[in-house]
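Section: Multi-chain targets

For targets with more than one molecule, the full set of components is provided together so that the structure can be written out for the assembly as a whole rather than chain by chain. Components appear in the order listed by the source. The example entry contains three components.
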Amino acid sequence: MSAGATSSILPLAGRERAVGYLVLALAIFCVLGPFAWIMLTSLKQQIAIHTGAWSFAPSWLNYTEVLFGRRSDFAGNVANSLIVAAVSTLLVLIVGTLAAYSLYRFRWARWVVTAFLGWTLLFHMIPVLTLVGPWYVAFRELGWYDTLSALVLTHVTLNLPITVWLMMAFFREIPPELNEAAQVDGCPPLRAFWSIALPLAAPGLIAAGILAFIFSWNEFSIALNLTSRDTATVPVAIARFAQQYEVQHGQMAAAAVIATVPALLLMALGQRFIVRGLTMGSVK
Amino acid sequence: MRHIFRAIAAAALAAAFGVAAPGAQAQQPFADVGKQPPITILINSSPWYGGFEKTVELYEKQTGNKVKLDTTPYGGMLEKARNAVRGDKSPYDLINLDTQWTIEFYEGGFLTPLKDIDPAFDLPKEVLTYGDSGYWNAAKRWRTPNGGKLMAWSPNGNVDLFLYREDLLKAAGIAPPKTWDDVLASCAKLQDPPRMYATVIRGERGNGIRFEWMYFMLGKGATVVKDAEKGDYTVTINSPQAKAALDLFIEVAKRCGPPNAGALGQGDVIQLLATGKAAQAMVVSAAWSNFDDPAKSAVVGKIMAVPVPAPAGGKPPALLGNWNMAVPKNVPDAQKKAALAFSRWFLTAGAQRAYAEAGSIPVRSDTFQSDLAQNPKFRWMNAYLTMQKYATQELGYAEGAQVEQILGLRLNQALIGEMSSGKALNTAAKEIEDLFRKNGRRTGSLPPLPE
Amino acid sequence: MIASFAAALNRSFRHWSLLPAVVVFVALTVYPMVNLLRMSVSTIEFAEGRAHWSFTPARNVALLASDAVLPAAVINTALFVVAAVAIEVFLGLLLALLVARLERGKGLVRTAMILPILVPPVAIGSMWKLMYNYDFGVFNQTLVALGAAPVNWLGSTSIALASVVAVDIWHWVPFVFLILFAAVEGIPPDVIEAARIDGASTVQIARRVMIPLLKPALAVALIFRGILAFKTFDEVYLLTSGGPGTATELVSLHLYRVYFEQNLLGYGALLSLALIAMIVAALLVSRRALRGMSRA
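Its structure, encoded as tokens over all components, is:
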């Protein structure tokens, strides 16, 4: 973000302001309400969950069972998810941003741009269900079944479309005069990309990064089929609580709460890092 | 079959007592399996998984052979099993298949018959076969030991039970129901929505309603097809008996159940019974542990079990659901032998006793020892035994999954009132007949019911 | 040496910046897509441990035409997508504009707002099913406490779909919010100032100044949220399984049943193509509609 630019404020005054804050408060309540309910559920015994009891004896039993239970390697699952999500996010941001910049900045033939963007969109439309079979076969041939690398690669592929499109949308906002000025100044393209374009598109980078991370973190179908016990990720582990005849709600709620913590932490840290890194290199 | 009853009863009681395995005895392996390479088993996380895991640990301790368990959520089991067998080399040496998936794997030729791995292997006669779901006669395309090969053995079997609140029935002066007329009569006294529902049954679209309704269907003597074993796939689902069964089902749901009967899943039924809002319910035997655990139930010690009611004068219906352990074809020979060795060990009397003590229901009749006293924790065993007498498997043909989806939708539509029971069955019959015809089966239909 | 390498890098930057993405796509997407096309005109049967392919386009199309559940699924999917996406984009935009307004605590609010998409979908489905529970769910508890009658959220054919849409809205508004909030942050404040000085009202500023500037981000949000909405599966599967009757049957659910549960791979692939066709049609229609609206 360019220094000195506070976020654009939609100026509200008086009654409009009150209404605005009211709507915001309502929205936050609607968003956090169910989540708070999930947290509450994670502290209840099953009978309290099933009767919807509001007064109950809270206990950490669900959490201990999820984290330290005999059959669970939840900590390992979280580690796997962290590695896969972090690495795939990093890779997809690099690959996607470069591609988006290339398409935006350099005069590629129209058909190239349409074909590339069209293909990404078409691929995004395919139900993941039909991708599982071919990918399973392909990775088994390579001997990459039950590895985190296979998962990273597939997640990069799945997240590439939205990363490319998002970054293109943000690159388009850059005033073209800046690029021309850089070119006139004899600034090499790589430096123009790193020092001019990227900092200006930083909000997009953050958004794309967050989304890529979240999608990778919550991805289930591919993770289920390309991993087994040791490499399983969080969604696969949580799905174990949805059993054939019933759902173990307490443990599932606890696992869901635990699952949000690393993602939140990583994103909070990641944001600051990206912002700092980019503003350090920006040239005004 | 009679020894099964005592057997299962005793096993349950043994498990209830949590009898500790005699330490010194555990050192001797229950079967001499020799040194085997490590194997991997595909298995689902379930209420009985804990017992299975403990028994596997005992195997490892006794024989020194390693076993890896890939615990998979139920929703992912079929996909993983399919991927494993369709690929070049299966990552699993034993795969656990739910009964309705077995046909697909048998027909697809993905498994190795157990006797092909070792001609000397055979299921001990005490081992329960749960309606012969582990046998496959390729010529007849039917699961039967007559001319069929042994493909799998069962580590766990389920049947519906009729559970009721002893205290409520006693207070209302009602005897435990034997027929659905008894149930309807009890509803008149017990139904008091929204405080109390008299009888709750699964009615949700799909496998839920299909499984429960088939108890009614079998009770009335109706069938889906005429005689699949002989190859006659004439559709008989829209017979007057089937309509009577559906009408009875809908009546029970309407008069005795909650307003959202068409959306009740097994979890919802368990919830209603365990929280004390339902007086009676049809529940799978596997769910029993929910009701005597104070962390899960508000009605500890108050639930009793009887066999699922039959229509007056009809025979008690007992539809089975069970798991089947099979060996994929695309596994190296040494691994297959190791898998079979584990199977042989697992089905011995000693191993099954350990299995029962670890909290699972054993699959061997002689594991049950009749000298164990009646433990109130296993008061459901008598009902379970009675039902095993009439146990059957349904939808044992390749189109089983599609038939279930057709029935699961049309039955549900009849239940929620979207169409009449006659129309629902007629529609289902037509769709099933089309399906069989497309697959080249010898089929036909009955005259349509009045709608 | 290094200087010439750097120079070469800069000269070919145009190419090698696009290359990694192309490589990824060629390596990982061509095979599945070709496979999908092949499957859609075939019937695949398994026997003797192998797959046997036969070329049967007519049979697959016949299956598509005679599919009893498909029409209901298509209608429900269309309703679901239109309702969910429209509401989500509207709310996401509104919230992005409002949160940008905050002087302090912006980061905190943004973090709070994205919590719903952090929860794994399987947990969302299960937890909301609990909340919607007829006898014990928190919604009916509140209604009863207020003296109203409990509502059959997931068991009534008339409101089941709406209940599912509500869950989807809760789940995905953060997605739209995130994208649009990032875009709002990028709007230069002097533009707003100028408009304010000109005496424009808040609504006018929002409509005439901000939204046009947000168009690219809005387009991305709409397109991708739309595509994902067509593919919604986890929540519906856990909440209602398509029931009661066919009230919440979506094409993605039907596809899962056909392709996965019934193991009809050929017809399932054709169904996937039909779904993709639906999405493309929806995108083209909405593009024309939006263009028409912006001209007005």
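The interface with chain C takes residues 78-79, 85-86, 104, 107-110, 194, 204-206, 258-263, 268, 271-272, 275, 277, 329-330, 401-402, 405, 409, 412-413, 416, 418, 427, 431, 434 of chain B (CB under 8 Å).
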